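Morning run. Coffee first, then this:
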Amino acid sequence: MTGKVGATMRRHVLAGMTGIIVAFTASLPASAATYPEKAIRIIVPVAAGGSTDLVARIFQMTIERLKLLPQPLVIVNNAAAGGTVGTRMIKDAEPDGYTLGIWHMGLLTAAAMGVTDYDHTAFDLVAQVGAIEVGLAVKSDSKIASLKELVAEAKARPGQVSAAMNIGLLPHFVPLMFASEAGIDFRWVQAGGGSVRLRSVLGNHTEFSLFSVPEFVTFGPQGIRPLVVFSSARHPRVANVPTAAELGYNFTFSEAILWLAPRGTPKDRVDVVAKAIEASMRDDDFKKRYDEQGIDPAYIPGDKLKAVLDQRMTGIKAVAAQVKAAKTN
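And here it is:
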């Protein structure tokens, strides 16, 4: 008797649990309940080896190691046309959650400088996942040993000191802003992403370039010497490198790293990815990798990110207008 009652009760309990699970599953949007069903393509608009690519690969390794998504992430590097081909690929992709992108403030500067006809408002913003300090560096054996000497050289040879840049993006925009602050001008040489600019400097094709702190850390042993960081305080990963403020220049700038989705991607799918991103950033190994590279884990969720980028864009447009006016005078 007891056995029959127990078996009957177990059947009722299991039936009830099944009903709850079915009801819960039914309450989820169909796309979220099954997404992702295949690999997600992550477009990174730089060549492999730069700081943005490094961030993408840290996320890829962490998400797959922790099994935060049931399908793999496939990184696709496309550095063509200074990264604008890659950002357009993200923008124009099918908004189904299977093509996403990781990029930086170049999305704003390229638009402000007229290199692209779209900015952050052309995308669904998933999250900001970090801030990276940037600065200038020369080849290790360069005769230019300090920022003071770089400025002096630029004044002695107006418009002749060559800078490896990526047109319209941070390696172009930030040195332009600094040049305006210092009252100098450089000769701009199109190169590309971080690893390409490194080859340009090491090959004596150009005299200096903008690099990020993670690139200082990675590229330093390959033969570059940082002159300055454009942060508010010295960075612990390159504590021997002075800030611009220490050297008498009122100039700071940092690079925000952004996860992007094509405009119109279902919100529930964006949310699935956003949760995997947040979980990654809580992981101890992830934190260690960020720290080793000197990346600040400055997280901003997608629903708050547009207002932040709108504000930054206002400032960037103002500087871009000044730069354009100076070039036409």
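The domain at 36-131+255-324 is CATH 3.40.190.150 (D-Maltodextrin-Binding Protein; domain 2). Good start to the day.
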